[in-house]
Design goal:
The protein is an alpha/beta fold. It has 2 domains: 8-162, NAD(P)-binding Rossmann-like Domain (Rossmann fold, 3-Layer(aba) Sandwich), CATH 3.40.50; 174-268, ProC C-terminal domain-like (ProC C-terminal domain-like fold), CATH 1.10.3730. 52% of the residues lie in helices and 13% in strands. Strands 3-2-1-4-5-6-7-8 form an 8-stranded mixed beta sheet, sandwiched between helices. Helix 6 (165-174) packs across helix 11.
Length: 274
């Protein structure tokens, strides 16, 4: 672990916190270097059993030792959770993985400008996440590097220069896994309709998404070029793409993502008033 991060506190011990804790431990961070504030007894017991970390039922003076505080609470309870933590963590770097809460609200609730806001996605739970990060002006380059080290345990990351861009990130990668699952549903249903078993169709669909994504990641060419290379005019792929174009799939998909971005902005407004 970064020498600047001798101790990390997690406020909330749910799935995202568990993903980061597990990743840090796999990379050699001792469990003794992490503390979790988790009021729910069942979750606290699981964290202690799975990771051996210290779990507190409520915030207390021991949090003063934390150089980094990871906020992994539901956005609806962020403000309430912040009140007892703020008094002990004003000198810490704060990393929020809570969806929708803007940095002006976080800074106000914590009495600190040393805040990084992130937008992860659910593949982080299996180390294949994509997280966007935005840093307040008070965050140093060394602190950004510390955040990168922590987030890298869950997959890839990138920085955005405008906080408003996190709404676009939410629409693209934050909600993106659901889009993939939606297409997997459709492909599986189509496969069953053409005579395959549900298990066969689903396995084919999942492997196709995984393989095509790997090809795209490894290529320097645009997705348009990659698509054209596997689409022979008059062939089966051409027939499928033409049918989707005639059905208006692409503009409908773009409109759907724009709706997600708009909803992300609305939720940011709502959560900031909590």
């Amino acid at each position: 672990m970064d020498s600047n991060l001798q101790h990390i506190a997690f406020i909330g011990g749910g799935n995202m916190a568990s993903a980061i804790i597990g990743g840090l431990i796999r990379q050699g961070t001792p469990p003794s270097c992490m503390t979790v504030v988790e009021p729910f007894a069942d979750t606290a017991t699981r964290l202690q059993k799975d990771f051996g970390v210290t779990v507190l039922s409520q915030a207390g003076p021991s949090l003063v030792a934390a150089q980094l505080v990871v906020w992994a609470v539901k956005p609806q309870v962020f403000k309430e959770a912040a009140a007892p933590v703020a008094a002990h963590t004003r000198q810490a770097l704060h990393l929020s993985v809570a969806a929708g809460i803007r940095t002006d609200s976080i800074c106000n609730w914590l009495g600190s400008t040393c805040v990084v806001r992130s937008m992860p996605n659910t593949p982080a739970l299996v180390g294949q996440g994509m997280t966007a990060l935005f840093a307040c002006p008070g965050v140093s380059e060394n602190q950004k590097a510390s955040v990168e080290q922590v987030i890298a345990t869950t997959g890839q990351y990138l920085w955005v220069n405008q906080e408003s861009h996190l709404d676009a990130v939410t629409a693209l990668s934050g909600s993106g896994p659901a889009y993939v699952f939606f297409f997997l549903e459709a492909m599986t249903e189509a496969g069953v309709g053409m005579g395959l078993s549900a298990q066969q169709a689903y396995k084919l669909a999942v492997a196709t998404f995984a393989g095509a994504s790997s090809l795209a990641a490894a290529s320097s060419e645009s997705p348009e070029v990659l698509r054209q290379r596997v689409t022979s005019k008059g062939g089966t792929t051409y027939a499928a793409i033409t049918a989707m174009e005639n059905a208006g799939i692409k503009p409908a998909f773009i409109a759907a993502m724009q709706a997600a971005e708009q909803r992300a902005r609305e939720l940011g407004d709502e959560f900031g008033k909590v």
